[in-house]
Design brief:
heterodimer, A: alpha+beta, Beta-Lactamase, Helix Hairpins, Heat Shock Protein 90, 3 domains, 5-stranded antiparallel beta sheet, 5-stranded mixed beta sheet, 8 helices, B: alpha/beta, Rossmann fold, Arc Repressor Mutant, subunit A, 2 domains, 4-stranded antiparallel beta sheet
């Protein structure tokens, strides 16, 4: 049973019932004590009044004394012979002892009081059942308002809870009826205080969802836009190839087409990388990664690229340096930085990958001797699809955005600085200590 | 016809320049908004091909500042922004035509010719003057019904002169129309082409206004 209304109703009724029973039990106990006192007094008074009469008169039925309270009077003579009994009860208690006593006779429990006077024994008895019945009546009298109240209370709870929960149903209907893309806040209107936090929490979630969705939409729009540029270039390049009249022209045109294709492919690959780096990648548990070993591997992969431009590419610094992170993400980060450096370094240039320990963590540096990036642009180059003015080198505009995403996941900072010696760019990634 | 191409993307710029040159246009290419403004101030162009996503100064801003100085230079916007609102913004800012990337080179050339034709007040896609008929789309010329063999520069020169018949164009103006920046211009190039054209069309077809220039 998960309905608030049902639960509340059941508990409330149970509590009321238990309270009523407890009260009734209390009343019963109290009534019994008081009845005992009153009736015991009666027994005694009756016995005394019988003593004061002439026993001859006892043969007359003493109506006033018996009646509804079912008193039974017995008188025994000196010889123990019963001289008188007031009612022909099936089983009457015999003479036990003087004073008050409780005795069992047959199936009935009797309360008795006996005195002796001039050799006669006078005993007045009353069945205990009378007292119990009277006490039970009192208890029932106490319980009855509770019992009467019960259905009333139930109805009251049922309707009040229903009315108070109606705003919740309104909210539920509002949620179930909205489309998957509707992210406007839910109405908070006249909500009970207990429900309001739920609705405002939902609204908070909607706002955050909205932000994520907007970011995603922007990204997709940007991505589509950015794909259009390489595709436009390819379309034009292919048309020029079609127009070529000589073999030499055709060969030249197809070389251009191939570079256009390579560029479009790279944009798609980088977009995929970026998509893969998005939130779920952050869920992966960090593992120890040796930056030096990783750098050596990436550099080895990139050697053909470096050789094609006669670039001196190498790794220096520590022999081994472990950070906690996602090995695949860190590989992409390194590969992007090294690719950038190789792209911008001149023929016969130099690209250094340096990994060293710092006081506050690990530092990864990729230094080239290319044209560098002016200070004013060093922040903007991290923006997705940002391409520098007069940039002759084709690129996707996503490389550094990917690098920053990965760095942020590793709580690392990325800084662009002048290369030592003034010419070129140094990209410095600082990792916190593992 | 001399076109100003404003396009920041290297591959697209190169291809458009090459393609339009093959179609007989003279194409000068700049890669940012500020250079575009400097270019139209320095040189007379017949048409501007304008990309919108430009570094330094956005294409729309370039277009607005061009129209602010009441320059009626025909402008063809070529962009990857294809939303209706983008097109409206582009046309309202003063563009004469709007082409969404990726586009076809032949379509681009056809739209350029249409804009040039409109600019010179002609409805007919074919230019005719006396017995001479020029078709800018096919680059075919006929004289008195017979095919006329013209070099690309000769064709461009005739096109420039026939753009506004009767107007006198100086040697410098003609040079500007048929040579782009950075192209080697011999000091007597225009005279050489005129001489060749007179041989093909008759000495009286192109008249020399001494000290001023040439007209048809």
């Amino acid at each position: 049973m998960t309905s608030l209304r049902h639960k509340l109703l059941a508990w409330l009724l149970a509590v009321v019932l238990i309270a009523g029973m407890a009260a009734a039990w209390g009343v019963y106990r109290q009534a019994r004590v008081e009845l005992d006192e009153v009736f015991d007094y009666h027994l005694r008074q009756m016995a005394l009044s019988v003593r004061d009469r002439s026993f001859d008169g006892l043969l007359v039925e003493p109506e006033t004394l018996t009646g509804e309270f079912d008193f039974v009077i017995q008188v025994w003579g000196r010889d123990g012979v019963r001289l008188y009994f007031s009612q022909p009860h099936a089983a009457l208690p015999g003479l036990v002892r003087l004073g008050y006593d409780t005795v069992q006779a047959g199936s009935t429990t009797w309360r008795v009081f006996a005195i002796q006077e001039r050799g006669f024994t006078i005993q007045v008895a009353q069945p205990m059942g009378i007292r119990n019945r009277l006490a039970a009546n009192s208890a029932l009298g106490t319980l009855s308002p509770f019992l009467l109240l019960l259905p009333l209370l139930g109805l009251l709870v049922w309707f009040t809870v229903g009315r108070e929960l109606r705003p919740l149903e309104t909210v539920a209907r509002a949620v179930s009826q909205r489309s998957a893309t509707a992210l406007d806040p839910l109405p908070t209107g006249p909500l009970p205080d207990e429900v309001r936090p739920l609705v405002s929490a939902l609204n908070d979630l909607l706002v955050r969802l909205g932000r994520v969705l907007a970011a995603q939409r922007d990204f997709v729009a940007d991505a589509a836009h950015e794909l259009r540029t390489p595709l436009a270039a390819l379309t034009l390049q292919i048309q020029l190839a079609e127009r070529a009249v000589s073999d030499a022209e055709r060969v030249a045109a197809f070389t251009v087409v191939k570079s256009g294709l390579a560029r479009a492919t790279r944009v798609v690959e980088q977009l995929l990388t970026l998509a893969r780096q998005s939130p779920d990648a952050a869920e992966r548990a960090p593992l120890p990664v040796d930056l030096v070993e990783l750098a050596r591997r990436v550099v080895a992969e990139r050697l053909p690229l470096a050789d094609a431009k006669f670039i001196d590419l190498g790794v220096s610094g520590a022999e081994q340096l472990t950070v906690m992170g996602d090995a695949e993400g860190l590989r992409i980060l390194l590969a992007n930085l090294i690719d950038n450096a190789l792209r911008y370094a001149p023929q016969q240039g130099r690209v250094d990958v340096c990994i060293r320990r710092a006081d506050d963590g690990a530092v990864l540096e990729v230094v080239d001797n290319g044209p560098g990036i002016p200070v004013a642009e060093r922040e903007r180059v991290f923006d997705r699809f940002y391409r520098r003015v007069d940039n002759e080198i084709p690129g996707s505009g996503l490389g550094l955005a990917i690098v920053r995403d990965i760095a942020e996941r590793h709580r690392a900072s990325v800084a662009l600085e002048d290369a030592p010696g003034g010419r070129g760019l140094a990209v410095r990634v600082r990792f916190p200590l593992a | 016809m001399r076109l100003l191409l404003v396009e920041d993307d290297l591959m697209i710029g190169e291809s458009v320049q090459q393609g339009l040159r093959q179609d007989g246009f003279t194409v000068d290419w700049v890669r940012d908004g500020q250079s575009a403004e400097a270019a139209w101030r320095a040189t007379r162009f017949d048409l501007m091909l304008l990309d919108l996503g430009l570094p330094r100064k956005d294409g729309l801003a370039v277009l607005k500042s061009l129209r602010q100085i009441h320059n009626a230079l025909p402008v063809l916007v070529m962009t990857a922004r294809d939303a209706v609102s983008d097109r409206v913004a582009g046309l309202d800012a003063g563009a004469d035509d709007y082409l969404v990337k990726p586009f076809d080179l032949d379509e681009l050339a056809a739209r350029v010719r249409a804009l040039l034709r409109r600019g010179s007040g002609r409805a007919d896609p074919v230019i005719s003057h006396g017995k001479l008929v020029l078709n800018p789309a096919t680059r075919v010329a006929t004289f008195a019904g017979a095919p006329l063999a013209l070099s690309p520069r000769e064709f461009a020169l005739l096109e420039a002169l026939l753009d506004r018949p009767g107007a006198v164009l100086s040697r410098a103006q003609l040079e500007e129309r048929i040579y782009g920046w950075g192209q080697e211009v011999e000091s007597n190039a225009v005279e050489v082409h005129i001489h060749a054209l007179r041989k093909k069309l008759g000495a009286e077809f192109i008249r020399n206004v001494r000290g001023v220039g040439y007209k048809v």
